[in-house]
Each structure stands twice: as C-alpha cells, then as structure tokens.
Design brief:
The chain has 483 residues and is an alpha/beta fold. 27% of the residues lie in helices and 16% in strands. The longest helix has 16 residues. It binds alpha-D-glucopyranose. Alpha-D-glucopyranose binds next to loops.
Amino acid sequence: MASGRRPWWQRALLYQIYVRSFADSDGDGVGDLRGITQHLDYLEWLGVDAVWLSPITVSPDKDWGYDVADYTDVQPVFGGIEAFDELVAQADARNIRVITDLVPNHSSDQHPWFQESRASRDSPRRDWYLWADPKPDGSPPNNWRSAFGGGSAWTMDERTGQYYMHNFLPEQPDLNWWNEGVRTAFDDILRFWLDRGVAGFRIDVAHGIVKDRELRDNPDPAVATYNANRDDVHEVLQRWRRLVDKYEPARVLLGETWVMEIERLIRFYGSGEDELHLAFNFPFTFSPLEADVLRGIVEATEAALPERAWPVWMLSNHDIARFPTRMAGGDDRKARAALFLLLALRGTPVLYYGDELAMPQADVPPERQRDMDGRDGARTPLPWNGDWKNPWLPMTAQVEPVASQRADDGSFLNYCRALIMQRRANPDLVEGDYETLPSPEGVWAFRRGESTGVAVNLSDETVEVELEERLRLGPWQGVVQRM
Ligand code: GLC
C-alpha cells in the first residue's frame, strides 16, 4: 500500500500515560494533566504520535480510576476539565493526539446510577445493573467469581434483599448491557469526549461487558464462560464503531481484549472495518522472549487478521509487571531486543510510560502499597530528574532518570528514540507487510514491505544471518537492512 494512505492510528506510535505517575505540576505528589502538558516537548522529542491516558474521570479510586462516579467530568486531583481541554489543545499543536480510557463494564458504587438502582426494586434504574434473588438457601444466584480475590461476583444488598453482580470489586457494580438505556447513555458519553477532541478510546474489559442473560453457572467456576466473553459483546462494539466513524478526523477504538486465543482475539476486529480498530494482543505480551514462540504468535495473528485489519503490540501496561523485569529478567540486552521487535513489527506499537527508560518493576514496601491487587510496582512515578515531592507511590524503580539518560548517547532512552526515528524514516517499517524469512535457531528474521529486512537474535550465541548480505549478529542483537 502506498505510503501515507493508511489512517493515522496505523502509522502512529502510542504511549500509555498512567496519569498519577507521569508528571506532577503542582507538587501534591500525584501526577496530573498539566504535568503532561508541561512535558509534551519530551513526548514530541521521543516521537510519540498519540497518548492513551489511564482514566481521568471522577472516581473514589477503589480501583484507581477504574471505578467511575462521573463519566463526563475530570477528577479534581488531575486538574479538572479545564486542564483536560488545555492538554488536548496543546497536544494538538504538536500533532499529538489524546486517547482516553472508557470504562463501560462497571461504574463505581458511588455513581448516581447505582445509588438510584440500589434504592428500591422499582427504581427506574434498577435494571441498569445486574440484580438477582438469592438461592433458596440465601447463597448467591450463581457461581460467578470476581477477578479480584476470586470470591463470589455477587454482593447482597440488605435493603432490597437482592444480590448485585460485580466482576471486579464490590465497589464496581457491573452495568447491565442488555438495557437499552445503558447503551444510549454510553453513546452520549462517547460523544461528549469525541466532541471535546479526543482521538478515540481505550476500552476497558472490552471482551467482558455483556453477561449471559440467563445468568447461567460457569461450567468451570474458574473460567468466565458466562460472566464475560459472550458473543453478544460484538454488537455493542460495532455500535460504537458506527458512532465514532461519523467523526472527522478519524477516531480509534482500542480494546483491552484480554483473551488468550488468537481466533477469539481476531473476532474483535469484525470484518476488519466494522468493529475495533485495534485489539490488544495479550498472547504476544505474555510470551517468553523466545524466537519460536513470538514468531508463532505473530504469524498466527497475521494469518488470521481480516484484510483491512491492523495489529497492535505492547510489552507493558499498568496491570502487569514491567517488561524489562517480566520479559527480560533485568538483562539490558534482552530489554533492547524486546523493544527492537516492538518497533520493527507490522502493527501499532504501544509504549507504557517508562518503557523508554527500561524502567523495571519496582519493589513497593508493604506499608506503601496502594493497590488492592498488588499492581503498584508497575505504577511508580516516572523519574525526570531526581525525586518527586512526596510521591503517592515510592520511587523505588531502579533506573536512571530521564535527564541523565537524555544526556547519555548510549542510554536505553536514546536507543529507544533511535528505533522510533528509524521506524518513522522507513515507510516499510511503518506500513509494509510482514513476511517471515528463514533464519537459524534462536533468530527471528522477517521482511517488511518491499525492501526492508529485519533480524533479531534472541539467543546467547553469536549467529550468522542471511538478509541482503550475510552478517553476524551478537547475542540479543537486532538489525534492519535494505534488501
Ligand atoms: C482493566 C484495567 C484494570 C482494572 C480492571 C477493572 O483490566 O486495566 O486496571 O483494574 O479493568 O476495571
């Protein structure tokens, strides 16, 4: 396909900002939107085309923003909606787009919708959430389990004598997506943000929002057959695709499709043009850094994707251990190899803030932990130049700060930036097709587009590889060559 013909989100490098920990503009120890605005020059220098912001909407923070109490206003600690508008305008001036997190599976129990829903059995909002009678012995309606802690996904509401359903915390009641009012309300929420200039949404729990209408027991209680993963979810995602497709310039839907089978993952792309634009590939993220396994996942994904669909790859996010620790075991060479791959494959790469520094998973001492699910180690503040003032999480990730890495030509940060610039400068790397090339064991070689060869050595041995010419690749080394 000719250069420049692909939509922006296929050509873009995305960067996930965990807002509380990116940059703090007012010294209260919590990152905020003005902190991001102040560091747009950094993002521009790095080569970021769009940022995805973790939830910025109003939240009691039981699950750090993923429990939304108001879908159309900004959390005061992040600077309010004015700070958001400023950020979008300033980012736009630098050609950086802003994607926000959309959390449709559940709201906070503090959301007025849920307050009304739980008020009485005849509340007009009752059916906006999933309510069910106890079994005759008083136990929960079925065997569904919560993803946090593994206990029942049902909590008894004494006042009205029914249980309500929550796939996550009891403070995160699941919305009833069979209710047309819920669907319409979310259409309005999407429009609210689209009209404010967001470039699209990262959709939380995109595979899980519709539940079995009959609330059937899961055949295996440990597997969410009926309380997530229903085919009915595709209808909702297609509805949103139709909605965002009305906007110019194009907007993007990026789904947190937490499924481990490629065929199921691919279904979230629909025909390739009528559902999600991008569906996160968790099999890739959780792969060991081994040539055979990674190549297998990429080949299977490439083979299964519909004609017009486009892959998306990431190594870290706010829910899992950071890749330099998880994938690379603290070995700088391996972290470089993983990043090299991320930026050489066909598909939209997503960096998690700090990935560009090779920021490792942090040890957070028990007395400083804030997350109920133990994820703080991936969420600690980005070190700019020494410390933050009273940061909400300790800065225990062992990594050189941005300032010293920028000044050091050999740093991981400058390596990362060089890879991004190499990608930008070569249309084959941005838009070209993927084709596996033969390679010795431990090596992954592929062609991108017409004339770009890529090889990466994912082994401890020096190997010989044949691209345009024969070359020797040291352990964990990658190369891009004209062919
Ligand atoms: C998603 C989010 C995660 C959150 C969960 C419940 O997996 O990424 O942070 O805890 O949804 O909203």
